[in-house]
Design brief:
The chain is of the alpha+beta class. The protein contains eight helices and eight strands; from the N terminus they run ααββαβαβααββαββα. α4 packs across α7.
Amino acid sequence: MNKKTVYQNLENIMLKYTDLVDVPVQPVAEKLVPIKSTPSLVTKPIDNDMYAFTGDDIYVRKDVANRLGKASKLLKVENPELQLEVVYGYRALSIQKKLFQKYRYKLSNIYTGKELLEAVHRLIAVPEIAGHPTGGAVDVQILQSGKPIYMGVKIWEFNKDSFTFSPFVNKDAFKNRQLLRRVMMKSGFAPFDGEWWHFSFGDKEWAKYLSKPYAIYKQIDFESSHR
């Protein structure tokens, strides 16, 4: 089996736009809060587009923040030298829409209709489905002595070797990915196995992956959520 076929097989079992579009949402009233750093949990924003909204802070829903704290403690149990680092959380819906339209335009000469939405969704989530604008999705990695441990490819290095179960990364990288996945899932998060760093709680992907009857977070505007 060649590399292209292996990647295609992995991609075929990932959740797609059509899997998520009809997932119902029963939104809860839960605020966005900044993630508080602790000895086991640190933050380092890596997207300058969000600076105008959140400055140097990373915001998530309150329950997500609590679950990140749990995951960071589970990681410490595995190895006291490790820390959980969050590099991305809430994304303003306006940014999500801008990114989506950018890739939709690029692919519009190749696909149409639902095929176009599906193709764009593989690169940047359709806004009404996307997890980051709900405050429920996070991008995380593991640090040791202040430096990211080896995962085969760097966080936000968007290629098919970022697939969590890629067999083309070495044993250490594969093991480290499974460690991250394990502590995040034990804390209630659902993984997106197309990006080893992406996990979510409360959004449509979480609901579908864990067979919940509905999602509990909808996309929200940052300013209005803080009035």
